[in-house]
Amino acid sequence: MAMGERVLQFLGMPGPWADDNSEPSDHYTIKIGGLPDWPVPQFPSAITHILRCAACQSLCPDFCWRAIRVQKLSSACEEVGRGAASPVSALKDDRCDDLWTFGSGEEGDDGSGEDIDLEELGRALSVAASLASHSKKQMNNQDTKTTEKHLPLSLGTRVVAIDAPVLPCFYTYTQEEPSTREVTVVSSNYSQDSEQEETWEKESYEYDRTWNADRTYLKFKKSMDAFPEQCFRYAYGGKPLLATAKVENPGTCKLCGGPRHYEMQLMPPLLYFLQEGANDCKKHLLDHWNWMTLVVYTCSKSCSHFDDKGKFNIEGWVVAEEAVVIQFEESLQESVHKDYFS
Amino acid sequence: MAERGGGGERGGFGRGFGRGGRGDRGRGGRRRSAGRREEEEKWVPVTKLGRLVKDGKIRTVEEIYLHSLPIKEHQIIDTLVGPSLKDEVMKIMPVQKQTRAGQRTRFKAFVVVGDGNGHVGLGVKCSKEVATAIRGAIILAKLSVIPVRRGYWGNKIGKPHTVPCKVTGKCGSVTVRMVPAPRGAGIVAARVPKKVLQFAGIEDVFTSSRGSTKTLGNFVKATFDCLLKTYAYLTPDFWRETRYTKSPFQEHTDLLAKPTKAIYQDDVERVEA
User: Fold this and answer.
1) Which domains does chain B have, with CATH numbers?
2) Domain named Programmed cell death protein 2 C-terminal: which ranges (chain A) (predicted)?
3) Across-strand partners of A247?
């Protein structure tokens, strides 16, 4: 990112609901929920490969969110496609019924009966997949041409188990966030006190705070109030809108070891819309999602390191896992501002 | 909550409440300026509590206070306390900063909100424009709404009208002490804390203050801290063991979900006094 360049901030606003939650779409479409659209049909087995824990070779049993970046490699030109967060959750035993099959042949190497609740994978994957189209507009630093490459929508090869639960799906559209400008005209109508019998000491500037909320959260809420329906925010290399001041270190890129920077974050209205759209049987899935924001950090160099072992790439697409930082609501003890009454 | 005898109506708000006059300092007030978009008026909840309130699963603010849940959205208060909530600007003070180009003046607005019946909030906001400061302070005040406990001075007849016991609040160097008063005493306090106490719904109280009460910010926050303490003080009516109920989060999860942890529903032995 060159110095002095303004980072464009995009907001993802909700659009229409999908007619059918499982309907496929182009892998560059931004959507929330539903099933993921892969550029290449062999992806899902590769994805599960990546998501395995390196130590014990099993999928992480905890409820966790993962971000996957999918990027096209090509000798002629480079197209950037990114994947975003998805929870690989529900690897608890009681979810055995959620199977996502792609045809019996490919399941063999995963081990039989691998129960992966990948339905939510569709979610952010789709959310992010679209960012590819954004990246094209913003990659002014890329010295490559971005040419349209339409991969055939192989609808026929996607076989989904009929009873696999799928989250409600809706599409989004993006708009640029206008920078708020306050009119700097001093109010000329300010009148002096009519009563002069009280003389107060001079007051000094005070940052926003209440006894139960701090400045970071109040700024977060202010941005939310300005655009109450924003489902995600995108600003490659920009600054995230944090809900709590403390943020974990995202670590370094798994492919190239370079630093990670902020790319996008998911916002709470997304949860609200999904809950509104979900019928009763899926509501219990959504009940456990209680984050304030999910921040996705990706490789700042947008690397596409070709791994000889072929572990990280399939058919000219590089797949990498990126970092997701979750911020939760604070409890009352945590949010009480000890300095308020001092 | 203090008991309520069957008693005559108190007239509630009657005492010189309301806006306008000395309250409405500066211009701008609360009318919606043309610049605000329609979209801003819609509320999409950000917190789980907000989602429950929007759904209508929580009816009163008391359910939230009972489980010590932080209220992080002012729209929650709007929905639950809503139309009975009144707001008033206590003071607008200019705050100046010396810059190379001269002085930069911003305005600091002090706003108190309350329904005159046990809920009060205080908001302080600095901004370049008076109207923005007032609007921001109202939102901050709604976020900080607290319950106020009222009690009796002597005989428990009629509705509670004064603080339940002597309480004191402190902010900076200012301490404010509130002492129960008999009916008819009225609020014996300086103009600024009197406003806060009126909005809280306290009808009679003796106050005494100490420290640099010329600092408006500290004075008004000390009064607020004092009101916060009314429910923090353990009196003998609270000696009975608490009967725990399900928090709204546990109560309103989907019935189809398998319970993952034990839900508190203690059968408490009642100790007869």
Assistant:
1) 48-147 (3.30.160.20), 167-236 (3.30.230.10)
2) 214-327
3) none
